[in-house]
Amino acid sequence: MEPSREQPQDRPAEILGDREFVVAGDEQHPFVEAVVDVEPRHVAPLADALSAAVGRFSALELTSTEDVVRLARVRDLHDRFAEAALAQSGLRPRLTFALAQALTEAASAYVGERDVESYQSPEERERIAVLRELTGPLFDLTADCHRAADELQARIDDGLPVFLLRR
């Protein structure tokens, strides 16, 4: 039986919709990706939060290859969300632990920086409210990605296969 796609609003763990974990990469470099459903009403606020994160990263002095790679990942993630926001559609991104963490940090930082007592336009207040609503589920997603990566590593350490053979 297929679960219902309608989710009550008071169940924040399901805000990001259906979620599955897949093993990607190859035999020598497998990694876990979470595939999540992001509703259309969440896409534009997340795109805005990612845009602000790209701006913050771009303003920093990038001193390591890791910094440059992280900026590129956040910029790529922003581009995917911005494209879906323009189309006013939902999104089903594949997120590694690092991307889930970047998305979580972007949403949290946006709320932290912009949720102030001074005047905010109604649009900005709505954006902040949506991002605040997403913060908990995004932290849960990041934790789930970390657990899934740990499970994958445990399978590798135990010598178990991580890919199914397809013939």
3D architecture notes:
The protein is mainly alpha-helical and 167 residues long. The protein has one domain. The protein contains four helices and three strands, in the order ββααβαα. The protein has helices at residues 40-59, 65-86, 97-114, 122-157, and strands spanning 19-25, 30-36, 94-95. The protein has a three-stranded antiparallel β-sheet with strand order 1-2-3. A hairpin with a 4-residue loop joins β1 (19-25) and β2. The two termini are 28 Å apart.
List keywords for this structure.
167 residues; mainly alpha; 10% strand
Kindly report how far apart the N and C termini lie: 28 Å
Strand content: 5-15%
Number of strands: 3
In angstroms, what is the radius of gyration? 17 Å
Strands in their spatial order, largest beta sheet: 1-2-3
Q: Largest sheet, described in full?
A: 3 strands, antiparallel
What is the 3D shape? globular
**Mean pLDDT figure:** 87
Helix content: 55-70%
Count helical runs. Answer: 4
> What count of structural domains?
1
Structure class = mainly alpha
Low-confidence stretches: 1-13
The succession of helices and strands, N to C, reads EEHHEHH
